Amino acid sequence: MNETGYTLIMERQFEYRIKYKHASDIVTNYHYYMCESASQALEFQNEMIEHHNWRINLLSVERKNPWSNRWEDESDILTTTTQLTNDE
């Protein structure tokens, strides 16, 4: 229980990485997030884009499988949600 007397239930968090490329760069970069889902990682990334006024293209979203120690593609989230690029 927390200080309000309610029990908080959190989902398991996984490490996510989002591959992106700045509009003017040649190389790609990654941002890493600890999240409950790919959509939450994308929300965090969109907040960063908006806060820093970045002009970037998001290329992929991956979740690290802690049992196999491999990155698993979850890029389908990029086609099912709105992403910010600040291209306007």
Walk me through this protein's architecture.
22% of the residues lie in helices and 34% in strands. It is α+β, with helices and mostly antiparallel strands. The chain has one domain. Strand 3 and strand 4 form a beta hairpin. It is globular.
- Biggest sheet, spatial arrangement of strands: 2-1-3-4
| General form | globular
What structural category arises from helix and sheet content? alpha+beta
Structurally, the number of domains stands at 1
Task: Spell the H/E element sequence.
Answer: EEHEEH
Rg calculated over all Cα atoms? 15 Å
The percentage helix is 10-25%
The count of DSSP E runs of length 2 or more, i.e. the number of strands, is: 4
Largest sheet: 4 strands, antiparallel
Low-confidence stretches: none
* N- and C-termini, Cα separation: 46 Å
Counting H and I runs of at least 4 residues, what is the number of helices?
2
Q: What's the average pLDDT?
A: 88
